[in-house]
Each structure stands twice: as structure tokens, then as C-alpha cells.
Design brief:
heterodimer; A: about 180 residues; mainly alpha; Cytochrome Bc1 Complex, Chain D, domain 2; two-stranded antiparallel ribbon; 7 helices; globular; B: alpha+beta; Sulfite Oxidase, Chain A, domain 2; Immunoglobulin-like; five-stranded antiparallel β-sheet; about 30% strand
Chain lengths: ~180, ~425
């Protein structure tokens, strides 16, 4: 009798412990549609770049229609970020960080304007139109030629002038910079 | 009674903790008895008339009924955020509301005064149509609506949130001596957050080998995205649903936001709707062209995610002037993205001598800590400063030390010692000292 009680107690304890260890699982399977609607990232190696293509000439027309009002033309200053010029100024008191002078990856340009621009109507253009505007911006910054075509194969290969300008500070600041940050 | 009261103003040499009037941090405790005694005196005698004669109206008439949502007194108008930028002003797309730290006490910022920075405005999200997906290097991609997330065991923690651009004006000279604390330091706030640990959801999906980063994306009109290191995600990152007991507000990411304690605020993606598990960062705009710190050699620090140890005196500041000589309390806030605040020192002579301030507990990791110290002002010019030290041993630098290492182009992560100059007439100015 005594042993049986012990056994029951043991079983109850075990069952209780097992229930405790059970993690709640309330996630539901996510379909491709669920994900595609919410995920817009494009990586520097070109992963997730969509089909479509564009040229600087096509982009120039779109830029004038969609972007110029806020960003201004090359050499001009609008209310939004300056997108052209500033080459060689990073690190100087006249620092002007633009796509041409500062941005390390061409895919970031495409990814950002495709998800966030035009400011008042984001995602309102086609992939080819976003490729075209990207091509125009890269051309005006002297990164590609006027006849270059931008698409998912060519874009990741475009080299940005400041591609080697960044130092990863996570999880540790590199030794060369450590004393500077730990001052 | 009177003699007791006077006694509190007699400064014994042993009460002094540092130069120019800084008192031992227990000075107020020692004189508490005298203060209590003073309060018991001075009761006016009643004349032969209605008992309420001489009372104010609010004592003589019933007040208003309870409100569905309480408000500040109408006499407290002006305790609001300082707004900068925004489309309405036709200035910049980035809109910011800065917390008036110099008008607040304690360490919890009222939710409506929590700072906000938005790059693409505040979306008006219907929670019934909002879902979070987790996908990429996981065994089973999953999705959650707000009702599913609420079913998990929640955690509640106090954390500060700070924009790494907090203090960027202080890289520049000259700066107006009347530049108030909301302008220079108002992009930091403290809250109690409730939500689900990200590690719980990652565990449910099942991480695949080689997962190193998580790309978080929001549902705002910029679909803001940031790359989060997996070790952070598995440590203390949470998905916050409540702030100070209420559902988080639209400006804070309603109905759900990522919250990376101690990391620069931009990584705590608001209106969170996608978490993509991968082996490399996505190099989004906000981790390349923005939120990177330009160094003197022309390179830029990227993924400088942890916020540095920092403190500032929130009273007195240049928002007021001292009306009389005598005893004041200097108080302020200290915080570090690397853990708990271990110590705060205060100087009244521009950094020549320092005294330990009292830290008001409980002290939480990656949360603001309030410090206090008594100060006897005799009318001499003074420069008030605070210097925080965190449990990792990091010391808040002087302005000179910060610039020596980082230069003046970094724009982000300014965390140097802040100085308030008290003039002989009691006027207070912000100064670089």
C-alpha cells in the first residue's frame, strides 16, 4: 500500500514536470504568401532581387517626376537627403554623405527606394522603374556608364566608391579603434 | 523649533563631500528630523465665522467626476514633448518628439512623453490585420497575430530606450547657452515593457545551424529594417506589446515592436511584421548610410549597437534659475547599454573635485537610474557636472576625451559629461566645460 502511494506520487510528479517543460506553441504555419507580403529585404550578394531591369535614361525621367521635388537635381539641395556628390569628403569637416560618397552597397539603394519611395507613395512603382531610378542615381554618382543596364545580375556587381569604408564594431570594436572608443 | 531649523543651514566641515558646496549624500537624512518639526508649527487661529472661511474654492465645492482617461492638471500645460522636423512643417521626413527630462522625476517616462523618432511617419495599424512572420533559417516558418502572442507567458522588464542620435547637437560649437535638456538629451526615455521573449519564438520555429543574424522589418511606409545579431536575439530581445501597463502606443510600434535592451533605439523595430533568420546582415539603409559613426580617419563604425555609459543632471538646469542662496538637491539620470549603473559622481566646480551621489534603487540593468546629492549654494559661480560609471567599469568621458578618440564627425553616440554653469545671480546656462 505504502509503495503504491509512493508510485502514484512519483507518477504525478513526473506528469507535472513534463507538463511544466512543455513550451506553449501558438505560432501558425506561415505560407509563402504570408511571408512575401511582409518581407522586402535584398542582400548585397543579390539574394531576393526581383526580375525587371532599367537604365539611367529611363531613370532620369522618373527621377524628375517622382524624386526631384524633395531631393533636388545634382548640384542642388532639396529638403530631403542630398543624393549626389560629396566624393572624398568623408572624414573631413565638410563631410557630405551621399549614395556616391558613402553608401557601401548598390543593393541597399535599390532595396531602400523600392520599399520606401517615393516618400508619399511608397511601393507605387514597378520593379523595372525602381531599377531605372537606381541606375540613374548610380550613373549621376559616376558609378556606372550611361548605357549600363541594371538588373538582378548586374546590380550586385556594381562597385561603390566607399565599399571599404566601414568597420564592424559588433560584438567588439577592432583593436585599431579600441583605444579611440574606450577613451 | 526655530533653533532646530537654523541648525540645518549650519554647514559642518564634515558634511562637505567635494568642493563648492557639494554635501555628503546623507546630509538630507541627517536634517530630516528638523524639517519634520518645522512643519508642525504655524497653524492659523480660527475666527467666529463659517468653518470654511478663507478656504479655496476647490475645498468648498465638490470636484468633477472620474474620467475615462486621466489628464494632467490644467496648470501643468507645457509639460510636453519638443517636436522637431516632420512633414507637417514641410521640413524633413524624419519627425521627432523629445522627452522633457528636466520636467520629470523618477525613472519611468510617462508613455505619452516617451520620445519618438519616425523616418516614415506613424502608421495607423488595425491589429486584427497585423501579423508577424518568422522565416528563413528555421525548421518551420510561423506567423502570429496579436491574439496568439498574448497567450505566451509574458515577461515585464524596465529598460531605457535611446536614439543613438541623442546629443548630436553637442558635437557642434557654439551651442546656445539656453539649449534645453529636451533638445540635447530628450531622445532617451525609460519604460516598463511587457511582452514575449524573442528566444521563445525562435525556439518554437527551430533555429537551423549557421543562423547568425535576424532581419527585422516593420509595417510602416518605409518598411524600416535592421539586422540584429543572433546572440542578442537569444539573450534579452523581446517583442513588446505593453508599455507601462497599457498597449504600446502607435508612436511606439503598436501593436508590437522589437525591443533590444541597451541597443541603439533604431534597432528596436516598431510595427514589427517580419523576422528573417539568416547568416549575414542585410546592410539596410539604416545600418549603412545612417546610424554609422564617421571616424577621424575617414572610416565609419558600423553596428556600433550598444549604447555607451551616460548621465546628465536634470535639476537644476537652464530651464530655471536659482532664486536664493542655500540648500538644493542636484538630481539626474544615468544609464548604460552594457548593464547596471555602478556609481555616479557629481562635481560643482567643473570637474576639479567629485563626490559620490546616492543612487536610487532598485537599480535595473539597461534602465535609467536616478541619482541625488545635496548642494549648498552660497552665491559663487559653479559648474555642475555628473559622471556615470557602469558595472562593466566604463566611465563616462569628458568632452575632450570623447573628441580625442572619436573626432567630431561621428554624429551618433555622443555621451560626454554635460555641464551647467550657475552664475552669481542664479542664472543657469549650458556650457562646454
Amino acid at each position: 500500500m505504502y509503495m503504491r502511494k509512493i508510485l502514484i506520487l512519483f507518477c504525478l510528479t513526473f506528469a507535472f514536470t513534463a507538463a511544466q517543460a512543455q513550451q506553449p506553441r501558438f505560432g501558425e504555419p506561415a505560407s509563402k504568401e504570408d511571408i512575401d507580403k511582409r518581407f522586402f529585404s535584398v542582400f548585397p550578394d543579390g539574394e531576393f532581387l526581383p526580375d525587371g531591369q532599367g537604365t539611367p535614361a529611363e531613370g532620369a525621367v522618373l527621377f524628375e517626376e517622382q524624386c526631384e521635388l524633395c531631393h533636388g537635381t545634382p548640384g542642388e539641395k532639396g529638403i530631403a537627403d542630398v543624393l549626389f556628390g560629396g566624393h572624398g569628403t568623408i572624414g573631413t569637416p565638410q563631410s557630405l554623405a551621399t549614395i556616391g560618397s558613402y553608401w557601401p552597397y548598390p543593393t541597399t539603394v535599390f532595396n531602400y527606394i523600392r520599399r520606401a519611395m517615393p516618400y508619399v507613395a511608397p511601393m507605387s512603382l514597378t520593379n523595372s522603374e525602381y531599377y531605372s531610378i537606381t541606375a540613374y542615381l548610380l550613373h549621376e554618382n559616376g558609378i556606372i556608364g550611361e548605357n549600363d543596364v541594371i538588373n538582378k545580375d548586374t546590380l550586385p556587381k556594381m562597385e561603390m566608391p566607399n565599399k571599404d569604408g566601414f568597420v564592424n564594431a559588433y560584438p567588439e570594436v577592432p583593436d585599431d579603434y579600441k583605444t579611440k572608443f574606450d577613451e | 523649533m526655530k533653533s532646530n531649523n537654523e541648525k540645518t543651514l549650519i554647514v559642518d566641515a564634515t558634511d562637505q563631500a567635494a568642493g563648492n558646496g557639494l554635501m555628503n549624500r546623507r546630509f538630507f537624512l541627517n536634517s530630516a528630523l528638523a524639517t519634520t518639526a518645522t512643519l508642525a508649527t504655524g497653524k492659523a487661529a480660527f475666527a467666529q465665522e463659517a468653518v470654511g472661511e478663507g478656504q479655496e474654492d476647490w475645498t468648498l465645492y465638490p470636484g468633477s467626476d472620474a474620467l475615462e482617461y486621466g489628464e494632467l492638471s490644467r496648470f501643468e500645460a507645457g509639460r510636453v514633448k519638443k517636436l522637431v522636423g516632420g512633414l507637417a512643417g514641410g521640413r524633413t521626413a524624419t519627425s521627432a518628439g523629445r522627452t522633457p527630462l528636466h520636467q520629470l522625476m523618477g525613472t519611468i517616462t510617462p508613455s505619452g512623453l516617451h520620445f519618438e523618432v519616425t523616418h516614415h511617419g506613424i502608421p495607423d495599424i488595425n491589429p486584427d490585420q497585423h501579423q508577424l512572420v518568422m522565416h528563413g533559417m528555421v525548421k518551420q516558418p510561423l506567423k502570429w497575430g496579436i491574439e496568439n502572442l498574448e497567450n505566451y507567458p509574458t515577461i515585464t522588464r524596465e529598460y531605457f530606450m535611446e536614439c543613438s542620435g541623442n546629443g548630436r547637437l553637442l558635437y557642434y560649437e557654439p551651442l546656445s547657452p539656453k539649449m534645453t535638456l529636451d533638445a540635447t538629451h530628450g531622445l532617451v526615455s525609460g519604460s516598463q515593457w511587457t511582452g514575449v521573449k524573442l528566444s521563445t519564438l525562435l525556439d518554437e520555429c527551430g533555429l537551423e545551424d549557421g543562423a547568425k543574424w535576424i532581419i527585422a522589418e516593420g509595417a510602416d511606409s518605409g518598411s524600416l529594417s535592421r539586422s540584429i545579431p543572433i546572440d542578442k536575439a537569444l539573450d534579452d530581445t523581446m517583442i513588446a506589446i505593453y508599455q507601462n501597463g497599457e498597449r504600446i502606443r502607435p508612436g511606439q510600434g503598436y501593436p508590437m515592436r522589437l525591443l533590444n535592451p541597451g541597443f541603439e533605439g533604431n534597432t528596436s523595430v516598431k510595427w514589427l511584421r517580419s523576422l528573417y533568420v539568416t547568416d549575414r546582415p542585410v546592410m539596410s539603409r539604416f545600418e549603412t548610410s545612417k546610424y554609422t559613426d564617421k571616424m577621424p580617419d575617414g572610416k565609419a563604425m558600423q553596428f556600433s549597437l550598444e549604447l555607451d555609459v551616460k548621465s546628465v543632471i536634470t535639476r537644476p538646469t537652464n530651464a530655471l534659475s536659482l532664486q536664493k542662496h542655500g540648500l538644493y538637491e542636484i538630481t539626474g539620470l544615468a544609464w548604460s547599454g552594457r548593464g547596471k549603473i555602478a556609481r555616479v559622481e557629481v562635481s560643482a566646480d567643473g570637474g576639479k573635485t567629485w563626490a559620490d551621489a546616492v543612487l536610487e534603487g532598485p537599480i535595473h540593468s539597461k534602465m535609467m537610474t536616478r541619482f541625488r546629492i545635496p548642494w549648498m549654494w552660497n552665491g559663487d559661480p559653479a559648474v555642475l557636472q555628473s559622471r556615470a560609471i557602469d558595472e562593466a567599469g566604463r566611465v563616462q568621458p569628458s568632452r575632450e576625451q570623447l573628441f580625442k578618440g572619436r573626432g567630431r564627425q561621428a554624429y551618433y553616440h555622443y555621451h560626454a559629461i554635460h555641464s551647467w554653469a550657475v552664475e552669481t545671480d542664479g542664472t543657469i546656462n549650458h556650457v562646454y566645460a
